[in-house]
Amino acid sequence: MSLSLTHLLFLIGTITTALILGVRAGRGTKTAEGFSLGGRSSGVAMIAGGIAGTVIGGAATIGTAQLAYNMGLSAWWFTLGSGIGFILIGTFYARPLRHSGLETISQFLVLNYGRGAGPIASLASSLGILFSAVASALSAIPMIGTLFGLSSTTSAIIIVVLVIGYVAFGGMKGAGIAGLFKLAVIWFTLFASGGVAVVFLVKQTHVVFPTFPWFSLFGRGTGQTFGNLFSLIVGIICTQTYIQALYAASDSRTAAIGAYTAALITIPVGLPSVAIGMAMHISHPDIPPILALPLFLLENMPPIIAGIGIGGLMLSVVGSIAGLTLGIGTMISRDIGQALFGLSRDRDILRLNRGSVLIVTIIAAWIAVTHLDSYVLDWNYMSMALRGAGIFIPLSLAIFAPKRLPASWAVASMAISTVAAIASRLIFAWPINPLFIGVAVSTILVGCGLLHARITKTPITPPPRT
Are 36 and 184 in contact (CB under 8 A)? Predict the structure, then answer.
């Protein structure tokens, strides 16, 4: 792949515009809450931009085209499942979480189960979110390296610099504004390119592709498909980044509508990426699949659209990493720095949040450089599974059936089920979705806790807020 001057000018212009919008939107951010929640005054557009702008990253675009290059329509599940997750959040979780007036998932769990729940929830969620940031970095490093003739390490450094410019100054408000611009760019270029790919496929599919697996949503197998879908839904519900956007809403109704709007934006985005991946399988059967989408733009679209599109792809990666690391930074600063180590000055909390964004971004980029041959979407599915394995059951119980589970059982469930999920994948390498392991262990422990409380008739009161 090579860039013409027109490509380069519009690519740079697209990225620069997003960075300027983000920095200008957040230049008045002086407090820790303003950085992480934008002053709790966000409207529907900002909520949807913050949520969809995070999930529509390298996995939803480059990673989807990569998997579609080899598997076809089943690659759509990432954006389809994410949209389903946002609908469920808007319907069942937005109102109680926004009414709590808190800032993180961990704070909500601490409110119901005591201080012991906070660090466990923060660490488990942060580990899962980190893997999603790795997936986004993994999708961009080969593209940047190929386009500009750079090494993987240099490409990773560029990503880190762009992420810091995207979010470190403006926080949630800056990420939301830049996210809206990014979404407009992605929608325009992806659907224009997807239309070209569909026209090409209509002339070729009857010759090249069998119906299964290429045109089946279950091309990767029914069990793996539903396991990945469950991972997406549970992971999204338990992800600080998306819940943080709900906390930033001006009220609970706005939070719910913002989640629904994000779903409407997210679900269709995977389809043009699928079409492009399949088209490139026909026209370029020997390329690395990770390059299918950017190469299609350069070869088949006018230079102006291609330049904007490549810039949009880079923004999709940067915006996703920025939103994810902002969620981790908020948990580290609030749930660890403030709650555990007693940071009280707003300036110190804000510095810790920004510093965490930088450090986590560097770690994610380093991991991506060492795993360049892996599937982007597989990292995301594992991420969703790990972040929800230990939190989903206790969190849902705290929202829909509070004051029933003793705190000690809730904390034990979060800790043991998270360890079980991590060990099943990273130590034992079991061929089972780690989410199923974690949720099964969590369900057993929570069930034992509920039964114990009922038999002993132990009165359960929420711990005092500290």
Answer: no
Cα dihedral 287/290/291/292 (nearest 10):
80
What does each C-alpha distance from 303 to 58, 189, 296, 447, 462 come to in angstroms? 22, 12, 12, 59, 60
User: Cβ contacts of residue 129 below 8 Å, gap of 6+?
Assistant: 239, 240, 241, 324, 325, 327, 328, 383, 387
Residue-averaged pLDDT of the chain: 85
Q: Give the Cα separation of 95 and 178 in Å (integer).
A: 26
Determine the structural domain holding residue 380 and report its residue range.
5-388
Rounded Cα–Cα distance for residues 60 and 270 (Å): 6
Write out pLDDT tens, residues 291-333.
999 999 999 999 999 999 999 998 888 878 887 888 788 788 8
Q: pLDDT at residue 181 above 90?
A: no
CA nearest 90: which of 246, 240, 248?
246
In a domain, 202, yes or no: yes
Identify the CATH number of the domain in which residue 277 sits. Answer: 1.20.1730.10
Which tokens go with 459? 């009165």
- 254 belongs to a structural domain: yes
Residues found in the chain: 466
Closest Cα to residue 182, out of 87, 265, 273?
265
Mean pLDDT of 363-389: 86
Q: Is residue 422 part of a domain?
A: no
Q: What is the pLDDT of residues 97-125, one digit of tens each?
A: 888 777 778 888 988 898 888 888 888 88
- The yes-or-no verdict on residue 219 having pLDDT over 60 is yes
Kind and range of the H or E run holding 279:
helix 270-283
* CA 362 and chain centroid, separation: 17
Number of structural domains found in the chain: 1
Whether omega for the bond prior to residue 213 falls within 30 degrees of 0, making it cis, is yes
> CB-based contacts of 196: which residues, under 8 Å, 6+ apart?
300, 301
**Structural contact between residues 412 and 458, judged by C-beta atoms closer than 8 angstroms:** no
Q: At what angle do helices 270-283 and 64-71 cross, to 10 degrees?
A: 50
- For residue 444, being part of any structural domain is answered with no
pTM of the shown model: 0.84
3: left (phi over 0), alpha (psi -120 to 50) or beta: beta
